[in-house]
Design brief:
With 212 residues, the chain is α+β, with helices and mostly antiparallel strands. It has three helices and twelve strands; from the N terminus they run αββββββββαββββα.
Length: 212
């Protein structure tokens, strides 16, 4: 029995060690990979503005530090004649196959929201959250007033935090985004630009002008 117990303990240690082993290709890419500003057009008219992001993080909440590729968007849009905010979160588990290929497995969250630097969230303004047609995605709509302060802070600091859970779990994963990262080089060097924030601000001004 002692031998069996020791074997289980060693297996557990080996599993943790394997999960914590840094990947030489993925580790330099950790964090925000890319953010761009894009208009949301409907029938030839400007109907919203969005940050479109891609990031790579480690999941220490559910998967012992294994990698997650997270894509999506943060939007300020016209929804049925009223302004609201949207959040799309697309989660893929990243694993390495026996032949060395990266495998992306969709793993949609059931809850996603934004977090401000003062720990306030927009979750209380959630109107609807539904799975998207994109595998691994959750699309959430919020009342605009619940998110305005967070978006204003993001515009000033070029930073915000997307929060989501895994498989209906109670614990949430925090994913900081650097909104001025326009690209990431293969060595992990971040390319930064003020264009993304400027373009988003210009889009918002145009959108509000159309609504007056």
């Amino acid at each position: 029995m002692k031998a069996l117990g020791l074997g289980v303990a060693l297996a557990s240690i080996a599993t943790v060690a394997c999960a914590a082993q840094p990947d030489p290709v993925l580790t330099p890419m950790l964090g925000t990979i890319q953010v761009s500003s894009q208009p949301y057009m409907v029938e030839g008219k400007l109907s919203g503005c969005q940050y479109v992001y891609a990031a790579l993080i480690q999941d220490w909440v559910y998967r012992k530090g294994q990698f997650l590729k997270v894509d999506g968007s943060i939007g300020f849009v016209d929804i049925g004649g009223s302004l609201g905010t949207t959040l799309k979160v697309v989660v893929n588990e990243v694993t390495v196959s026996p032949d060395g290929r990266f495998v992306f497995t969709p793993s949609p969250p059931s809850r996603a929201y934004l977090l401000g630097s003062d720990y306030s969230t927009n979750l209380d303004g959630l109107v609807q959250a539904t799975p998207s047609d994109t595998p691994g995605a959750l699309f959430s709509i919020f009342r605009a007033e619940s998110t305005l302060n967070i978006l204003m802070e993001a515009a000033e600091t070029n930073k915000t935090t997307v929060v989501f859970n895994r498989a209906s779990g109670g614990s949430d994963i925090l994913m900081p985004l650097e909104l001025d990262v326009s690209d990431t080089q293969p060595n992990g060097e971040k390319v930064r630009s003020t264009d993304t924030g400027n373009n988003f601000a210009s889009c918002i001004q145009a959108l509000l002008k159309d609504k007056q």
